[in-house]
Amino acid sequence: MATTISLLPEKHFLCSLCRGIFTNPVTTPCGHSFCLSCLCQYWSRHLSRYCPDCRRVFTDRPDLSVNRILAEVSDKYRKAQPQKPPDEEKVIDVEQMIQERLQKIERLKKSLDLQKSSYLREVRESQKVFSALVNAMEKSHKAVVAAIEEKQKEEEMKVEKYIKDIKQEIQELKSESSESDPLVSGDQNDDPKQVVMPSEMKDWSKVIIETDPCIGVTRRALSDVLEKIKVEVNRLAKAELKRTEKYTVDVSLSAKTAHPFLYVSDDRKQVRHTDKLQEVPDHPKRFDRVANVLAKESFCSGRYYWEVEVGDKIEWNLGVARQSINRKGKFTVCPANGFWTLSLKAGGQYIANTSPVTSVALENRPRKVAVFLDYTEGRVSFYCVDSGVHIHTFMDKFTDRLHPFFSPGRLHGGKNAAPLIISSSFCSI
């Protein structure tokens, strides 16, 4: 069987992206196969969902699984190939190199066209959103002015009526005074005239007109506008989160970096705090004071997305960290020390670990948190996967390789024993 496989043309076993024999091959709906890692990296670098071979665009995200039959056949073909001496020179196919570069030019042009479409789409979206907000603010302002003018007219009419009623009572009092007894003795002329107050007379000492009736009117109107802006921001965040999903990468924990109190699962997708030290070898990359762990993957360019299930945990810390961070002794988790992370504290407070820390207000408790790293633009963003709400974004300039960072938090008497779970296991579009 191995001899028969070795007689087949090599092109049947080559990934068109890396030009090597398939490793964990996956097949797209259009029938073309690629190495899983090659396809993940390709889709991470490109903005559109299409097959690298035939350029077919996928409207829905394909469910990618390793083609076991092709993987087994490719492995047998690899083993059947004669081992080349280390110093054997490779034969350069000049024509093939020219074709590859011509194809690269076409792909660059295609990417530029897609990029222009993305720019135009974003400009149109911003025009639509900001125009709607400006119209809403103008409408709210007009409503405030109309309400104030209406209130002013009501108060003017009320005061005019008060003045009219007072004048009427003055006239009645004068009338009452003139009808009093004319035969009053001379020694009484110096005394004020005594008249009986009619029972229907109003006690004007209790009538008060507020001179500052507009307290809080503009603020309340602006609060309504801010609420509309908040709704629009959340809508945009959901769309933003959807667009970042195409940069999903496979993230696995690096057991050699895990603090001895941490237990890392065999599949390297879960980490939890234990009540006793694990028997692990000492390693220069291992955290020895704080219960943290890094992913084995590191990034120095491009965009990357992964999700972490936090469930009902009452304490955790997630984000990215520089490869060169201090892992020994005590240190502060903050950007200046190479950490860009979001935390949930045991008291229920969410904070971005800036210096000083930034408190983050969340209406709903996230059970799954998404992390999006845009290395080139210097952004680390966090989202609530359940609601699509944007939580926080760090802006910085990265100069070192970055690793995904995880800390499941202390046990708190068993209340925080659940693990952090990396739920995104392979690239999707």
Structural commentary:
The chain has helices at 2-6, 36-45, 68-80, 94-178, 217-244; strands at residues 25-27, 33-35, 262-264, 270-273, 293-294, 303-309, 316-322, 339-344, 350-352, 358-360, 368-374, 379-384, 390-395, 402-407, 420-422. 33% of the residues lie in helices and 16% in strands. The chain starts with a helix and ends in a 7-residue tail after the last strand. The protein is an alpha+beta fold and 429 residues long. The strands form three sheets. Strands 3-4-15-6-11-12-13 form a seven-stranded antiparallel beta sheet, covered by helices on one side. The chain has a six-stranded antiparallel beta sheet with strand order 5-14-7-8-9-10, with no helix packed on it. A two-stranded antiparallel sheet has the order 1-2. The chain is built from five helices and 15 strands.
Report a brief summary of the structure.
This protein has helices spanning 2-6, 36-45, 68-80, 94-178, 217-244; strands at residues 25-27, 33-35, 262-264, 270-273, 293-294, 303-309, 316-322, 339-344, 350-352, 358-360, 368-374, 379-384, 390-395, 402-407, 420-422.
Portion of residues within helices: 25-40%
Beta-sheet strand percentage? 15-25%
For the termini, the CA-CA separation is 37 Å
Q: How can the largest sheet be summarized?
A: 7 strands, antiparallel
What's the average pLDDT? 86
Question: What is the radius of gyration?
Answer: 37 Å
Shape: elongated
Lateral strand order in the biggest sheet: 3-4-15-6-11-12-13
Coarse structural class = alpha+beta
Number of strands: 15
Q: Order of helices and strands, N to C?
A: HEEHHHHEEEEEEEEEEEEE
In terms of per-residue confidence, which ranges show pLDDT below 50 for 5 or more consecutive residues?
425-429
**Total helical elements:** 5
